[in-house]
Specification:
The protein is mostly helical. It has a single domain, classed as AhpD-like (Up-down Bundle). 26% of the residues are buried. It is 59% helix and 0% strand.
Length: 170
């Protein structure tokens, strides 16, 4: 069956498309390096903030696999359903987030969507204000960069969402 067909299964849902490629099996050293990079990038970043950043970047990149994973991880870690759901409309739902979280979310958008070719000075300045420790800001930028790389693998290889269990990683 061609995965682009829109056929239904017995429950009435569209059929799940198979992944195009299980990249981690074909490039295991790259996968292992990504796992190490991810671990290094998350050091010193608040775990709740980290999941918000990963969810927002994954929303922008349309990475269903990463959205599934990081939404489940956030909820399992105690994040509220409301904050996870409102993240896609954070500008209208600012009152759900701290000013520091908002600065990180805005920086995530600027780093993820480089349509102007750069991160605007005002976005960077706001992030630097809320992350005055340059090491912490650097770790945040690294975490944003890494989730964008994971998203590109997920979207390109059409990794299938819906099978992730919190506590296990890709």
């Amino acid at each position: 069956m061609d995965y682009l067909e829109n056929t239904e299964n017995t429950a009435g849902y569209a059929e799940e498309h198979p992944p195009r490629l299980v990249w981690s099996q074909h490039a295991p050293e790259v996968y292992k390096a990504m796992v190490r990079l991810d671990a290094a990038a998350r050091k010193g970043v608040d775990p709740v903030l980290l999941e918000l950043v990963k969810i927002r970047a994954s929303q922008l990149n349309h990475c269903a696999f990463c959205l599934d994973m990081h939404s489940k991880d956030a909820l399992a870690a105690g994040e509220s359903v409301e904050r996870v759901l409102q993240l896609s409309a954070w500008e209208e739902s600012r009152h759900f987030y701290t000013e520091k979280e908002l600065a990180a979310i805005e920086l995530t958008e600027a780093v993820t969507v480089l349509t102007d070719g750069f991160v605007p000075d005002e976005v960077y300045a706001k992030a630097a204000k809320h992350f005055p420790d340059e090491a912490e800001l650097t770790q945040l930028i690294a975490a944003i960069t890494v989730i964008n790389a994971w998203n590109r693998f997920g979207v390109t290889c059409r990794m299938t969402p819906g099978h992730y269990t919190p506590g296990q990683h890709a």
